[in-house]
Write a structure and sequence with these properties.
This protein is α+β, with helices and mostly antiparallel strands. The protein is 22% helix and 18% strand.
Length: 108
């Protein structure tokens, strides 16, 4: 086990995503960012994440959709110009709305 003294959140552990060092329903939160695209068996890893997640806990999976293109800019006019140029290149916008989905929570 590794302990990160600079973190006030808690301890940090390094382990295989397929065999996490926690008891069933021990943790209140699980976060994996840009991990699942590299796993040989992402379904087994997701099952392991759910195994350790407490009822009502949060599961956050963030990964890249390499077939998608996202523009996130504070300048609305610039964003519109960029999107129009994509259309000019033959790309079709599928959605222009902000991502505001609620986080996933474990339900029993």
């Amino acid at each position: 086990m590794e302990v990160d003294a600079s973190s006030s959140i808690g301890e940090r552990r390094v382990a295989s995503a397929e065999s996490l060092p926690f008891a069933d329903r021990e943790v209140v939160g699980y976060r994996a960012e840009r991990l699942y695209q590299h796993l040989a068996d992402p379904v087994a890893c997701a099952a392991e994440a759910l195994r350790i997640l407490r009822s009502g806990g949060r599961l956050v999976l963030v990964d890249q959709d390499w077939d998608a293109l996202v523009v996130d800019a504070d300048d609305h006019d610039l964003t519109c110009r960029i999107l129009r140029s994509f259309v000019g290149w033959g790309l079709e916008p599928l959605d222009r709305s902000p991502l505001q989905e609620p986080p996933a929570r474990r339900r029993d």
